[in-house]
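Q: Hi! First time doing this. I have a protein sequence and I read that you can turn it into a structure. Is that right? Here it is:
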Amino acid sequence: MKRLNAYLFREVDIAPLAVFRVAFGFLIAAEAVGAIFTGWVGRVLVEPAITFPAVAFDLLQPLPGIGMYVYFAILGVAGLMVMLGLYYRTAIGIYTVLWTGVYLMQSTHYNNHYYLLILVCAFMLLVPADRYLSLATRRDPGYARGRVPQWCITIFVVKMAIVYTYAGLNKLYPDWLSGQTIGVFFEGRTHFWLIGPLLANESFQLMVAYGGVFFDLLIVPLMLWRRTRWLGFASLVFFHLFNSAVFHIGIFPYMMIAMAVFFFPPDQVSRAFFKGRTRPLAGLSTPRDPALRRALVAGLTVYFVVQVLLPIRHHLYDGDVSWTEEGHRYSWRMMLRGKVGTSDFYVHEVKSGERYVAPEQEELTAAQRVRVATHPRMAWQFAQYLADLYRERDGVEIEVYMHGEASLNGHPPRPLLDPERDLVTADASWHRSADWILPYDAPYDD
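A: Yes, that's right. Below is the predicted 3D structure, encoded as structure tokens:
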């Protein structure tokens, strides 16, 4: 324990933290502004009649009128302030809270990088990333510091290790290893200029599938070992730029490239970016009280233990997580399955006995229709929405049944939900398997 404390609280150059803050601030500002100008805000938060907020966050709804555009403009300004190091704590705090709100107020467009962005923002709120190369230090040179405790760097390395390791382990299942999943992903991209024919090649698809496994499992060891660090960095840059070009997944690839700075020795980062620049020699004061240090270490330990356990919680549920989606989120199951489906929601009025297809399903966006047909909890959530709507609007109690099929990774479609179960009264407790989700029989052998 003494050696761990000595390592975590030793002073190291602040350069990696300052470099990452500038890159990260630019990226999160681009994410917010880009969401406005690409139409994402309108499609996902403004236009839909229902946004499917996270369970237990039903009160968290998009702002009316131009409210969400203003909301994202504030996010963009906060990101720029983080980049510049101006009122840094306030800016990163605002971004963390508002982005978490965006994440919770809609479930249709879940992305692992949206979740990762919250976690990285929380880390950035914790560390003193504005103590160098910032407008704050230009305004007050006495605020500048040249060194920070090692833990400010290490937490990012551990976070990346968890993300990459689970991303690799989760790929060790038949559809990925056979190239089936990659083939589904590449199918709609074979028209791409230059690389389209390559994406259509089955041998290349298999190479990408196994290359993804080896990359995810080996990239952290490669980056940690001095002799292979530059090879690892080159692999990391190529891997993420390839993913960006093929899948168009926003800032995630570039954020992961920027986070690689934490694997390099801080003094080396300083020489690379700030050679010849006058540096403050003073370090940031750290807790000297052993009790405070133990509290910090204990808090970080609990956090990382939770992060290690969350991705394996799907073993507590019955069935294939790629089919049931139970335990899928927060587990770094990135680009692991493709699902499409069709569904019809039937309303049964309890008092009159009348039964008909819910006309409200036509109000769902194209993305929402795919999600409710392939994600059981969203189908359940839509049923709750219909029940509340009919009760408040028409004063009638209803039952809701879903008839539909879903296809996983291009396999023949199968029924997803029990068509005889009323979704309004179905138990959707997070701590037990949902018995109204039909099992994925004979998986991966079609």
